[in-house]
Amino acid sequence: MNKIIQSNIQKYLKSLTVLYVEDDESIRTELAQFLRRRIGTLILADDGQDGWSKFLEQSVDIVITDIKMPRMNGLMLASKIKEQSPSTPILITTAFEQTDYLIDAIRIGVDKYIIKPIDTSLLMRDLMASVKQSHAEQQLELINKLFDNNKEGIIVTDKSNSIIMVNKAFSEITGYLPDDVIGETPNLLASGRHDDVFYEKMWQEINSQGSWQGEIWDKRKNGEIFPQWMSISTLLNDAGQVSHYMAMFTNISQWKADEERLKYLATHDVLTGLPNRNTLYDLMSLSFANADRNKESVAILFVDLDDFKPVNDNYGHHVGDILLQNISKRLVATLRSGDTISRLGGDEFIIVLTNAENRDDLSATVVKIQQAIAKPMEVGGHHLSVSSSIGVSLYPEHSKYAERLISYADTAMYQAKKSDNSDYVFYQEG
Fold it and tell me: What ranges make up the beta strands (E) of 146-241?
């Protein structure tokens, strides 16, 4: 034992409570004086029965007891204590003629056997050894509890990357029991979503830096692929060489789902699920670029539902919301895959139609859209039907700018609302 360890143990002794049981008053008094200078708290008992009562009454870290005592001898006391608290160290003191009790003491689990008259230097050696062992066992127990109770999954491998330990959270997250994975490599969890380059870079960082962390996708026992945030560290032996690897990971499926949800909400209308205004402009830019490349036209339709406000006023906003959701689904079903529909807000929609050179075909599409909107539906027991007014502007004929084209289509839509002849109007300059 080096000086640092010895010093730490001596400090640790100062924090301990020791129960000393001895029926001989003179021996008890003399040794008590010695112990009080070296330990934290000393509890004295004059026989086994008294010692047992005090053990139950107080929190005791170590027990020192004589064997031959009235009412309850030391071996019986040791047996009861070990039954109650197996980890509590017990030192037995006895005279030479009492060595026949040694076998019983070993059977009970007594930690040390000290011959009287007591050599205090040997007593301290045995006491410190017991403390060291007990402290190590407590530390190991604490580590095991931390290992098993950790909410993060933990994998420990040897230096050849064979799994030697996993914790409870690992099994809960992956579905694999310890017997399923011990002796296997973590490749058992590979999802197939990462290429060789990914793993090469990961191991390069582990070997050069001693650790790595990042997002990785693994596969559960049931085949389900899931994302996790993983940290991998090297564990070194006394020679500074890698002896083990430890990986800790957290299931981030919910975090990823929330992230995707936030991305979705940033680009889509909450009520209808249609692209929102910001996304609309991005999609219009793509449509315009394709139109330029193919020398085609793009039609911008500004759609406004007629008499939508009375639906909200008469039946409530909940009914109005369902009506908007149903109309949105109808419009999506009516359009081609390359077309775009966006809800600006309220009862206003923008539709972007590609390949819109033929005015007759375009008019037919507009009528088809109006028919889809006007088709009666039942919402909350109410039979509802709304019409629409639509204004149309054309790219690049009227403008090459999205904002201006929407404004032109909006102007044409208001002309359609005022018109007695048509429910849709093509924008005309001037």
Answer: 153-158, 163-166, 211-219, 225-236
